[in-house]
Design goal:
Length: 504
C-alpha cells in the first residue's frame, strides 16, 4: 500500500536580514523576525562584527537598533566599526558596566555582589529596551551574565525572563556567547529559537580558517553543514556550501573544438559541453599550454572563460602564451577572459567555489580552467574534503553545460608517475601527456584514455610545442612503451621533428 503524501508546506514568516548575503542564503532568506537567537564562538571568531552588521542592516531598513555590551566599551565598539569603514549612526550603544560601577561608595557587604549585580544587569537591559523601543537587539555577552549568576538554575531563569521580555517587545535578538563555560551550552541551545556557531582554526601555515554552521533554526528550512567565511575589512562574507542538485538544467550534448584539429580527432570530436576533462602528466609536458589553446579557441568563438591559476603568475602565463603564438592580452583587456591568480594558502574551498559560481552566473563564462589541482589540494584540510567539494563543484558545472578543464601534475618526469590524489573517477574525460625518449631526444606524447561523452581514439600521438603553436602528430604505431617513458622503436615512422624523407 502506498503511503499518503503528508508533506506540509512551511508557512511563510517575516524575515530579518542579517546584512550578510551568504548567511541569508544559508537561512533561506534571513532570520525569522521577533525571536531570540544564540551566536556562539570563541573570542575572535567574528561574533561582534556579525552583531554590528545585523544592526546596521536594520538601520538601512528603518529599524532601530540597540547594542547592549557587558564586556566592551562604546569606544571599543566604535573602533571595531571604524576598522570596517562603518559608522554606528542610528544604533544605540548601551554599556552595562561603567566607571561609576567601580567606585568604592557602591560597594556593600550584606548581600553577595552577584545577587545585586545580576538583578541590576537585567533591569538595565529592560530599561534600555523600554526607553529606545528597538526592533533589533544584540546582547554581548552571555558569559558575563553567566559569571554574575554563578548558579546554573538562576542563570537559566534570567535568560528565560529576558527571552519572554524581548518576545513581548517584538524584538529580534542576537545573544552572543564566547563559550567560556562549556557546561551550559546545551541550556542556551534549548532556550534559543536558533543557534549559529562560528569556528576558527589555525593551520600550520597560512591564515586562520573560519567556518559557520547553523546548529538549529526552528520553523524554517536552512542549509546544513559547514560554510566557509572570511572576516576582513567590510565585515563577514559567508560562502554557502555548494549543493549541485539545486542547479539542474536541461543538458544538450554539444562538442566544441580545442582549436587543434588532430587533438579534436583524438578526443572524438573535441571537448563536450557539460563535462570535465582532466589533463594529467609530469611537469613541463604541455598541460597548461594545451589548456591555453582550448581557452583561446573558446574566446575566438565569442565565448567567455575563467582561468584559475594556482601554480604560476599571470605575467609568466602571458609571456609563455605569446612565445607560442597565443596572445591572451586582448581578451583580458576586453573582459572576455578572466585569469585569477590564487594563493592556495590564502583561499578556502568554499571561497573558491563562490568565485567559480560568480564567474559562471554573473560573468557568464562558458569555460572554466583550474590549474592545478595539486595546489588546490593544499587549501583543503584533507583529501576526503577535496573529493567531496570537488565532486559538488564539478557536478554543478556539468549541470550548467560548462566546459571544465582540470590540470593535475604528476610526480617525476620519466617512467612511473604518481599524483597527490586520484581524480580519475570524478573526471568525464582524461587526456594523458607523457615524455618519452627516442633517437636521442626527449619527445612528448598525448593520449585520450577515457571519455564518458565521446567515442575517442584508442591511439597515442606525438605532441609538440613550438613557435607556431601546438602540433599533434600521427599515431605512434612504430613505438612500444611510450606511456612508460622508455620507448622502443620498431619501424620507419617519421616524427614531427624529422625533415622530409624521414632524415634528421
Amino acid at each position: 500500500m502506498k503511503r499518503p503524501d503528508i508533506t506540509v508546506p512551511i508557512p511563510a514568516q517575516e524575515r530579518a536580514s542579517t546584512g550578510i548575503a551568504g548567511l541569508d542564503n544559508v537561512l533561506g532568506g534571513g532570520l525569522p523576525a521577533r525571536h531570540v537567537y544564540l551566536v556562539e564562538g570563541d573570542p575572535g571568531s567574528g561574533k561582534t562584527t556579525l552583531g554590528l552588521q545585523f544592526l546596521r542592516q536594520g538601520v538601512q531598513q528603518g529599524e532601530k537598533g540597540l547594542y547592549v555590551t557587558l564586556s566592551e566599551t562604546s569606544a571599543e565598539l566604535r573602533t571595531v566599526a571604524a576598522s570596517h569603514g562603518w559608522d554606528l549612526d542610528g544604533i544605540e550603544l548601551f554599556e552595562l558596566v561603567s566607571s561609576e560601577g567601580l567606585s568604592p561608595e557602591l560597594e556593600q557587604s550584606i548581600l553577595h555582589p552577584s545577587q545585586v549585580e545580576l538583578g541590576e544587569t537585567v533591569r538595565g537591559v529592560i530599561a534600555a529596551v523600554e526607553h529606545g523601543k528597538p526592533q533589533r537587539v544584540v546582547f554581548d555577552s552571555l558569559s558575563e551574565m553567566r559569571l554574575l549568576a554563578q548558579d546554573p538554575l538562576r542563570y537559566r531563569r534570567q535568560v528565560l525572563a529576558l527571552k519572554k521580555f524581548f518576545a513581548d517587545q517584538g524584538c529580534t535578538v542576537l545573544l552572543l556567547d564566547d563559550r567560556s563555560s562549556r557546561d551550559t551550552d546545551l541550556q542556551l541551545h534549548s532556550i534559543s529559537h536558533g543557534v549559529i556557531n562560528l569556528e576558527q582554526a589555525v593551520d600550520q601555515y597560512g591564515p586562520e580558517r573560519r567556518r559557520l554552521r547553523v546548529l538549529k533554526m526552528r520553523g524554517i528550512k536552512f542549509r546544513g553543514g559547514d560554510h566557509d567565511f572570511v572576516l576582513d575589512t567590510g565585515g563577514l562574507a559567508v560562502f554557502p556550501r555548494l549543493v549541485a542538485a539545486e542547479h539542474r538544467m536541461s543538458a544538450t550534448h554539444e562538442v566544441v573544438s580545442s582549436g587543434i584539429p588532430k587533438l579534436d580527432q583524438l578526443m572524438g570530436g573535441g571537448l563536450a559541453c557539460g563535462s570535465n576533462t582532466l589533463f594529467n602528466g609530469p611537469s613541463g609536458v604541455g598541460k597548461t599550454t594545451t589548456a591555453m589553446a582550448c581557452v583561446l579557441a573558446a574566446l575566438r568563438r565569442g565565448e567567455r572563460a575563467a582561468y584559475y591559476l594556482f601554480d604560476e603568475g599571470l605575467s609568466t602565463l602571458l609571456v609563455r602564451g605569446k612565445a607560442l603564438g597565443m596572445d591572451l592580452e586582448p581578451y583580458l583587456a576586453s573582459g572576455h577572459l578572466q585569469v585569477i591568480p590564487l594563493d592556495p594558502a590564502e583561499v578556502s574551498a568554499g571561497e573558491f567555489a563562490h568565485m567559480v559560481r560568480h564567474a559562471v552566473e554573473e560573468v557568464e563564462a562558458h569555460m572554466i580552467v583550474i590549474d592545478s589541482l595539486n595546489a588546490y589540494l593544499q587549501a583543503m584540510p584533507g583529501s576526503k574534503y577535496l573529493m567531496l567539494q570537488m565532486h559538488e563543484l564539478l557536478t554543478y558545472l556539468n549541470h550548467l553545460n560548462i566546459v571544465t578543464i582540470l590540470i593535475l601534475g604528476q610526480h617525476g618526469v620519466i617512467g612511473d608517475a604518481g599524483s597527490d590524489v586520484d581524480m580519475s573517477y570524478l573526471s568525464d574525460g582524461i587526456l594523458t601527456f607523457r615524455f618519452f625518449e627516442a633517437r636521442g631526444r626527449l619527445l612528448k606524447a598525448v593520449s585520450m584514455v577515457k571519455s564518458r561523452t565521446n567515442q575517442h581514439e584508442q591511439t597515442i600521438r606525438e605532441f609538440r610545442m613550438g613557435p607556431q603553436g601546438l602540433e599533434v602528430g600521427q599515431e605512434l604505431t612504430d613505438f612500444e612503451g611510450v606511456l612508460t617513458g622508455v620507448a622502443a622503436y620498431r619501424g620507419e615512422l617519421p616524427l614531427l621533428g624529422d625533415r622530409p624523407g624521414g632524415k634528421k
